[in-house]
UniProtKB/TrEMBL annotation, chain A:
Keywords: ATP-binding, Nucleotide-binding. It comes from Kaistia terrae. Signal peptide: none annotated. SUPFAM superfamilies: P-loop containing nucleoside triphosphate hydrolases. This is ATP-binding cassette domain-containing protein. One of its GO terms (molecular function) is ATP binding. Pfam families: ABC_tran. Residues 13-252 form the ABC transporter domain. The keyword ATP-binding applies. InterPro entries: AAA+_ATPase, ABC_carbohydrate_import_ATPase, ABC_transporter-like_ATP-bd, P-loop_NTPase.
UniProtKB/TrEMBL annotation, chain B:
This is ABC transporter permease. The keyword Membrane applies. Its main location: membrane. It is a multi-pass membrane protein. It is found in: Cell membrane. Keywords: Cell membrane, Membrane, Transmembrane, Transmembrane helix. The chain crosses the membrane at residues 27-50, 57-77, 83-100, 107-130, 136-156, 177-200, 231-252, 264-297, 303-325. It comes from the Bacteria. InterPro entries: ABC_transp_permease. PANTHER family: ABC TRANSPORTER PERMEASE PROTEIN YPHD-RELATED-RELATED, RIBOSE IMPORT PERMEASE PROTEIN RBSC.
Amino acid sequence: MQHAETTQGRPFLEARNIGKRYGGLHAVRDVNLSIYPGEVIGIVGDNGAGKSTFIKMLAGDHEPTSGELLIEGRPVRFSNPRDAKQAQIETIYQDLALCENLSVMDNIFLGHELTRNPVLRLLQRNKMHIESRVLLDDLGIGIPSTHELVVNLSGGQRQATALARVAKAGAKLIILDEPSAALGVRETRALLDLILRFRSQGKSILVISHEMRDVFEITDRIAIFKRGELIAIKRTKETTPDEIVSLIIRGRQ
Amino acid sequence: MTQSVTQPDRNAGGFNLFGFARSQEGVVVFLLVALMIVVAVFSAASPYFFDVRNGMNIGRAISIIGIASAFTTLLMIAGGLDLSIGAVMNAAGVVAAMVLTQTNLGVGGAIVAAVAVGALVGWVNGMFIAKLGINPLIMTIAMQFVVRGLTLGFSASASKVIVDPTFLAIGQSYFHIGPLAIPAPLLWMLLTMLVLWFVLRFTLFGKYVYAVGGKASACRRAGINVNVITIQLYMLSGIGAALAGVVLAAIQGAGIPYGAGSELSVISAVILGGVSLAGGIGLIEGTLVAVLLVGVLKNGMTLMGISSVFQMVAEGLVLVGAVTLDRLKRRL
């Protein structure tokens, strides 16, 4: 297996002593985590453990109050989601951030539309539909028509649309917040396959999940959060679900 | 949110009647059918109704509402609302009249000044709504008072008569195409709708109008500058109201500072035309047919001798009927 060595070389993203406090409350405290290209990291922990706050700092939604972030060795500051996007970090939240009144194609290209004529900025619909189709087929996503409105899609198809958009944007790090929460068995399978496909393309993936089976199937490493702290990072192959659950519940052993 | 259960076959090539009835195109078709029925009824009821000249009268009568409603359609698709447009119309008419009589800037200067006033009011609305998150309803009602008060103050509450023949031609001339004499205001309305239809359908800006109305937070995360789009739309709304006010002043031959605001007629036409109050859904075509429908109803009732008091009641009932049907069709 190759990804045993993925933690070698230069990390794509490095969080150093990163923290976030709201007034007197320490939501996240001194987290150190390096994320390497082609690696899937699972983030687990109980509710309120600081998982969401942590990924929101990487996504530019919340600015850290302490510590620093490095992208490919260079220090960066994310004060809004646009900054994170520029660093090729894309985040998919549970609500997926799709415009349900628009088509699959519109959502895949949202914010990156192809246009001609710099003054009128006319949409190149056909070109975008064709490119969307190619992209969906490449990713093995089963959506019959790129013209379909998102409101008519199933939960899995919506998830896939959001992932296709992220792939389109050329993300190097994809952050997923509880991606399988609303999915059926077959849809979850398709999602996991998609994540593994992204990994094989050298993308890094950070996924928050409560589903131990999913976590053990797709991740290379598992980061366990408790009370705002990153209490342990385990190689997936060297641990067991029991050990992870015990860490989540009881903390340090 | 209605989470529709999987409908994998919807695009398999077959025609889905229920899907169509729910779609925004379906609303337009429904309104067109309603319009044809109303036209048929009035044609049977009055010998004066089905006549080219009467048609042109209807066209002129709806043009002011029509021009403003085209711009309001864009704003409301994006989830906005502007109740200051009636006040802006009056202000624009008065400003145009005062520029014509008190300066030598001419007709061009008068129109530019009026449009600038509309754009400024829209910019103020947009800034407060987009940047500070003030509720559009409250903000634009407040601006309605401000603009109305300023208009009355600057004009000393007196109508400003316009005598410039070029300016009056904007509202009172006709374009002759073969045997047809098309009133200029009707032409302005159709041109406005054509341009905005094109913008909505084919341009990036039009796509963002729908996207922002669909889910502003998703647009923000996709890197779209939602605030700028919102401010631009309120400015467009103000500009549209100002253009309507210029045409109105030209029809009336005066800038009248105390006219009753027509913002509610505009907004109800837009809603009748199928624009969702929640945003994200609607077509200029729907607004056009809705404006026509209301105009035809009013004209037909006038010809049948029904008093304008009851016409108001009818206009209200049509709107209630339309939104009721809109509610019911979601259960299809």
